[in-house]
Amino acid sequence: MAVQKLPIAKAINESLRTALENDPKVLVMGEDVGVLGGVFRVTDGLQKDFGEERVIDTPLAESGIVGTAIGLALRGYRPVVEIQFDGFVFPAYDQIVTQLAKMHARALGKVKTPVVIRIPYGGGIGAVEHHSESPEALFAHVPGLKVVSPSNSSDAYWMLQQAIQSDDPVIFFEPKRRYWDKSEVDTEAVPGDLHKAVVAREGTDLTLVAYGPMVKVALEAAAAAAEEGKSLEVLDLRSISPMDFDAVQKSVEKTRHLIVAHEASVFLGSGAEIAARITERCFYHLEAPVLRVGGYHAPYPPARLEEEYLPGLDRVLDAVDRSLAY
């Protein structure tokens, strides 16, 4: 059946399965991705069906995992690397930013590095230190990397397919607290552009931009604001690098107000780039300054405090009130 209602985790599993079936050069690598099926069971059953040579349990060595993936990509493979948790990616940061991101330019376009790095990211699961980070802006700042994040099951399936097919390296951020959220996936659909934003809800009074785990919060905020007679347009950014500034501009020219929401710290987060760029593009359309809603500029707190840290419905609605009060 082409259309199924799947959790995001299962949609990613199905996408990996499709890629492994369609291309013998696709490999899945990472800590516990094989026998265990991943700590979130995202890769469950793949090693059983495709074997240990294509779904590979690696040592606990992120730098080695990514370095090996780069070598495999240079030999014609399409490795899909899983970083078990967001905070574990930093031992591999050197490999990613100084090797993977630079290889295409260093070879004057003659060498391709089709590596996908899957990273479960964000908070909301009650985890311990180093398990609830949002480092997307660090990677988006690096030329040579594509950085994307789905917010629903359909995008999780199709965006991962497109990432695997890309000849450029893609950092694929998966919103781990949404892994079990279900929505429809049409595996026979024609996917849109990987780097195009989509309007998740139309509105006229204010544009609310979000991506990944914050899209659900943005939609909840739009529903709550509608009860007070405020019409919010929710734009799911989907791609963080490159960014679809044209879509944001088009919406802002209609609503004249903009709020950007993400879990990561507001300070130097991806929302800062959107705010600066849209202020340049839409200066004479804006009726209020661009506002940002995000995490505090502090290390991610212990699990009992994470609800205070994460930007939720109230903080988004407070920003809506402040923007519309100008």
TrEMBL record:
<dbReference type="InterPro" id="IPR029061">
    <property type="entry name" value="THDP-binding"/>
</dbReference>
<keyword id="KW-0786">Thiamine pyrophosphate</keyword>
<dbReference type="Pfam" id="PF02780">
    <property type="entry name" value="Transketolase_C"/>
</dbReference>
<feature type="domain" description="Transketolase-like pyrimidine-binding">
    <location>
        <begin position="6"/>
        <end position="181"/>
    </location>
</feature>
<dbReference type="InterPro" id="IPR033248">
    <property type="entry name" value="Transketolase_C"/>
</dbReference>
<keyword id="KW-0560">Oxidoreductase</keyword>
<dbReference type="Pfam" id="PF02779">
    <property type="entry name" value="Transket_pyr"/>
</dbReference>
<dbReference type="InterPro" id="IPR009014">
    <property type="entry name" value="Transketo_C/PFOR_II"/>
</dbReference>
<dbReference type="InterPro" id="IPR005475">
    <property type="entry name" value="Transketolase-like_Pyr-bd"/>
</dbReference>
<protein>
    <submittedName>
        <fullName>Alpha-ketoacid dehydrogenase subunit beta</fullName>
    </submittedName>
</protein>
